[in-house]
Design brief:
Length: 257
């Protein structure tokens, strides 16, 4: 069941989010969280996201804007380290609350609360049209890098903020996509460097077959997205996904997942 759900989400998310919408990490994290502890789910998602990003580089990297990568990407890399460290620290903290329901014990942990809250926040924001069209001027690129990098390191949710800050950076459509892919890879590289120094490294390496299948599915999705989809918005899909993410986030915060 884990293979079916994770790989299906990886394929569809990679295709639908090649140009716009939720990021692959935001969609894939809840799929992994259904079967693994939250900290491990974030690390597993990071591996798939990073390898998929490297694959996308072969398709779009030539369009990346070096100036924007430096202004946004360098601060993002630094804060990704901080966010990743915070995640590893939260993953080792004790539950805040333990309760019994329907004969089962559930733990409400700090890491579940934080990840669940972020999922809920991004899902709610995507339901509001005003926030979907949010954009910031080019002078805020370093600030955007700091925020996007921190959230990327903490929970892998960097795409929405990155897009908001790059939208008015004077990039062409191709440049917007290529620059975003380069920055995403830099953030993923930084956070994986931290994850690899913790116990999550061993737990991730123990699921290589699942990771391989998920990566292959994401690659296929990227090819489909690059060849068949244009820069379009998918409001119906976004609303459905947002509602599903809200359900997962509530489950995480309640300790059910």
């Amino acid at each position: 069941m884990s293979y079916l759900i994770v790989c299906s989400v990886a394929l569809l998310a990679s295709a639908l989010t090649f140009f716009s919408g939720f990021g692959l990490g935001t969609l894939l994290l809840p799929a992994f969280a259904l079967f693994f502890p939250v900290g491990q789910a974030v690390a597993l998602t990071a591996v798939v996201h990073f390898l998929n990003g490297l694959f996308k580089l072969t398709l779009t990297a030539r369009h990346g804007d070096r100036r924007v990568v430096l202004l946004f990407g360098l601060p993002a890399c630094a804060m990704a380290l901080v966010g990743a460290w915070l995640l590893t620290w939260l993953a080792d903290t004790r539950p805040l609350l333990t309760y019994v329901a329907a004969g089962h014990a559930f733990d409400v942990t700090p890491v579940k609360l934080v990840i669940g809250f972020l999922l809920l926040a991004f899902a709610l924001l995507d339901l509001v049209p005003r926030f979907r069209s949010l954009a910031f001027g080019a002078r805020y690129l370093p600030l955007g890098g700091l925020l996007s990098g921190f959230l990327g390191g903490l929970a892998g949710m960097q795409g929405a903020l990155r897009s908001a800050f790059l939208a008015r950076a004077g990039l062409t459509k191709e440049g917007f996509i290529g620059t975003g892919v380069v920055i995403a890879c830099l953030i993923d590289f930084s956070r994986l460097a931290i994850y690899s120094t913790t116990g999550e490294h061993d737990s991730v390496s123990g699921h290589v077959p699942l990771l391989g299948c998920a990566v292959a599915a994401a690659f296929l999705g990227a090819i489909v997205g690059n060849r068949t989809l244009k820069k379009i918005t998918l409001p119906g899909v976004q609303r459905i996904v947002a509602v599903m993410l809200m359900g997962v986030s509530v489950g995480l915060m309640a300790g059910v997942l």
